[in-house]
Structure formats: structure tokens, C-alpha cells
Amino acid sequence: MEIFFVDGELARSCNDDVIRARRFGAVVAPVLRRRLSEISAAAHLADLRRLPQARLRGHADGQLLVALGPTADLHLRPRDDPAPMNDGDLVEWAVRSLLVTGVQLAPAA
Fold first, then answer.
1. The sheet that has 72-78: what strands, in order across it?
2. Which residue in 61, 69, 72, 108 has the most C-beta neighbors within 10 A?
3. How distant, in Å, are the alpha carbons of 40, 53, 64, 104, 106 from that of 78?
4. Residues 6+ apart with CB under 8 A from 36
5. Where would I find the H helices in the chain?
6. 95 SS3 class
7. Residue 74, class by beta-carbon neighbours within 10 Å (0-12 exposed, 13-18 middle, 19+ buried)?
């Protein structure tokens, strides 16, 4: 799958090892790198369902969330506008490019 970023700053933060570690911390940074590699290797969005550690799920605002461990999420949406839909549901096997819109760090529970 192709991965795009909402802006250049987010792209640098996610793709540069030093910036990623500084911005997201020693725990989340390597998971973020691995998850982006897994997404890139997938043929389509439905392939991410085969990765239980990714915990792909929808969000109330229409975005998709991918887990970056227990305390962080990668926010995504299909790059195609409009996204491929069937009866109001996202057709995951038809999504072949994603737009990363953010990384949310949550406080540890």
C-alpha cells in the first residue's frame, strides 16, 4: 500500500529515526516504524486485519486507527476521496493508499 502524510512535518516525524524517537519516545517510535513498514507491505487495507497487533478499527470521526502499543494510535484515512464504499461500509480490499493524519499519544493507563 502507498502511504501519504497530511503534511511534511508529520512525514519527517514519522520517517526520520532521530526525530521520531525525540517526538514519540523510545517506546512508541520503534512500533511506529514497524507499523508503517507493515502497512507499506500490505496489498490493501483488509490485509491489516491479519495483524492482530495493529488492532485496525474505525473512529467516530470516520478515521481509521491502528494501534502503536497500548498507549498510542496512528490515525489514517483512505487517500481516495470519496473512499470506496458499499452500502455505507468501507470496502477495505479496495483501499490501496492511505493518508496518515496524525499520531495520538495517550497517557499510560
1. 2-5, 97-105, 72-78, 64-67, 57-58
2. 72
3. 14, 20, 8, 18, 23
4. 3, 14, 15, 74
5. 8-15, 17-41
6. coil
7. buried
The length of the chain, given as a count of residues: 109
Exposed/middle/buried for residue 78 (C-beta within 10 Å: 0-12, 13-18, 19+): buried
What backbone torsions phi and psi does residue 52 show, to the nearest 5 degrees? Answer: -60, -30
CA distance 39 to 41: 5
Count CB-CB contacts under 10 A for residue 14.
Answer: 22
Beta-carbon contacts of residue 46 (< 8 Å; ≥ 6 apart): 92, 93, 95
Q: State pLDDT tens for residues 44-55.
A: 999 999 999 999
Q: Which amino acid is at 59?
A: H
* Fold assignment, 2-105: YaeB-like fold (3.30.2310)
> Cβ of 26: how many Cβ atoms within 10 Å?
8
